[in-house]
Amino acid sequence: MGRYEGTFTSIGGKTIAKYQRTKCKVQIIPIFEGKNLGLFEETVLLLEHIILNSMNSSHLDSLRQQIDSVDSEIINLLENRQSIVYSIAKHKQQENISIEQPERFSHMIQTRKNQAEKKELSPEFIEKLFTLIHEESVSFQEKQE
Q1: Alpha-carbon distance 137 to 81, whole Å?
Q2: Per-residue pLDDT tens for 74-123?
Q3: DSSP letters of 55-115?
Q4: Would you give the end-to-end CA distance of the chain in angstroms?
Q5: Cβ distance 7 to 15 under 8 Å?
Q6: What's the rounded Cα separation, in Å, for the pair 136 and 133?
Q7: Confidence (pLDDT) at 1
Q8: Of 12, 16, 79, 97, which is least packed with CB atoms within 10 Å of its CB?
Q9: Is the pTM here over 0.90, yes or no?
Q10: Which residues pair with 15 in a beta bridge?
C-alpha cells in the first residue's frame, strides 16, 4: 500500500482537515478555525478509527488474495503431480509392479517430515497431508488398471 492523501469536509463543504496515510500510520492535520475544538477532536479520532479500520481491511484483503494465489499454485502442482502419477501407474502396469510400495511410502513421508522441520512447519501436519495425497495417488492408480 502506498501513501494516500485526502481531505475531510464539513456538511457545508468547508475543508476541516486533511489526512495522509501510509501502510502503518495515519496523520490528520486540522484546518479548523471554529470554537468547538472538543467536537472536532472527537470527529478526528472517529475519522482516524475509520481510516485505520479501512487500512486493516485493505491489508487483510491483500493477504487473502495472496493466500488465494498460493492455493491456486498448490492446485496446479497437484495437477502436475497427478500426471506424473499417471505415468507411474502405466509403468507399474507394464512391469507388473504392485501399486502400493510401503517402503517407498515410509521413506517419502520421513523425507517430507524432515523438510517440514527445516522450514519450521509441523511434521505431523505434513505427514497427514502427504498421507492424503498418497492415498489419492493409490486410488488414482487403481482406477488406471
Answers
A1: 9
A2: 999 999 999 999 999 999 999 999 999 999 999 999 999 999 999 999 99
A3: HHHHHHHHHHHHHHHHHHHHHHHHHHHHHHHHHHHHHHHHHT--S--HHHHHHHHHHHHHH
A4: 53
A5: yes
A6: 5
A7: 46
A8: 12
A9: no
A10: 9
